[in-house]
């Protein structure tokens, strides 16, 4: 049984295949954390010792490992919840009142001792993936408004000091830059205050005890929220490390009306003693099983880097024909097809087809694309409006603003206040009509600026994204075949909140194939490969000005859901031929890449090799990149991972057909050598 209870000791145990999470109810009715780690089946061995204050300055709360610390009393560590009652009281005093079990979910019910206010702690188990999804819900059963000033979704207790914390940093065009730093006394904060997710930090934590890819303890959690989040890691004075994550309380206030409930976003959390690889596999498997739409993602062509705003029907048809010729399955028209959209500062909000660019509407293009047997996709940025649009002229009050202040534009645009019912309805209707009028299979949903001058409701920092989730969920009900790509100026909306509601992430506007290796590597720690869109684009790259051979560019993009963003009208015969071959190869290995297990592979070389591997059942694929050779004559030995040791694998390397056992490939490995700069190889292994 995954959820266990020792009634005698009032101790709850949550068991997954390899882990246990244990907490109990103490004599004061507090929920005290006891254990999170390797599996311990017998709950009777756990107890809740009586705790006493350390000194009059170090109250008992400071050493009480509460599952969900609230603001109140002699608590000075970070709390998860702070509310203001209508009489001005700002202290919460809760007591355990009971529990419920719903299939794989345990709910612990807490209630304030004076006010009609309930807190429910939720724990949902994913046994095979060794994960627990945690969240909190609040219920105001009183007659008054209760103001929620801070709500973090869960607290985690880790019984160590001096852990390593990792996350990503970055900015537009340089998203997903993984960093690791030592935790010490005091607090560390990662957060987003921009409303529209962020290119900077990402809503997750990884804390490890000097783990490697394949060994060592790792505690991790990913928040299911695309808006303002904060995550606090606190190494206390008393020998443990605490982590909390949830909605950012910066400029936040939720007014919980009488009889209303609020459910905070959940955190998918896990523990492993098998290093980062096991962490990634557990999260990827969770996403594949529970969030991602089944089926393989199509190879897409997107016209943005080729044409930018200068789209027109004729040229798009010409692009589509070549896209089809090289093997694309989905043709996506990016920005520029609507309103007076010839530059960034016009058109947003006016979602009618530009008659100068498409005199007969989109139909002739879509018909051509469909006649060629491709799917059709289109770009939108529904949350935004340009001041120079008709929509803005008609509804100046639809944007986030303060009445007495001028509203800042960024990229020449404002953000629509989607929490207004009429704005939500406008966006839904606009998209519904687009999807009903045209045979569209794919929506690329962009969002190119953060929120500012957010208006008087301090809850919009959370409500905004909830509305976006709702719109897409509703659209998917009516138009179930349509895939949605989450893009926010590149990789600004990559998180477990949006994953599943949207099907693809646009990982970054940085399409430089070398930079992408780092971006994709960092991404893979938490997020599944199937949702990682990667394009092959032209050289010199618009951002890095780097020239990289086309084969390396393809190989880098083939590590995810492949897309092509080149101006294929300018392709030479050789480019077309190579593109055809590589796209064909991608289609063969696509199930292994998109649905297999992903491995970050280390090599024995000082040289700058980057190796990644995928395994699905009896097949594996190894990607090897050498961006810049240091000692070019030296090769590397790569030990493969995740193969079946007693099976014989056949593969082709350097024109030779070879056979080796899984055991040999995993223990001895294979000797490989790439030469020069920007060399790369893909090796496909199949069980004989
Ligand atoms: C930003 C996106 O990341 C790009 O791919 C492209 O769609 C542009 N916006 C269009 O304005």
From TrEMBL:
The active site is at 446 (nucleophile), 509 (proton donor). InterPro entries: Aldolase_TIM, Alpga-gal_N_sf, Alpha-glycosidase_related, GH, Glyco_hydro_36, Glyco_hydro_36_C, Glyco_hydro_36_N, Glyco_hydro_b. It is an enzyme of class 3 (hydrolase). It catalyses: Hydrolysis of terminal, non-reducing alpha-D-galactose residues in alpha-D-galactosides, including galactose oligosaccharides, galactomannans and galactolipids. GO terms for molecular function: alpha-galactosidase activity. Substrate binds at residues 172, 334-335, 411, 444-448, 487, 509. This is Alpha-galactosidase. The lineage of its organism: Bacteria, Bacillati, Bacillota, Clostridia, Eubacteriales. GO terms for biological process: carbohydrate catabolic process. Its EC number is 3.2.1.22. Residues 29-257 form the Glycosyl hydrolase family 36 N-terminal domain.
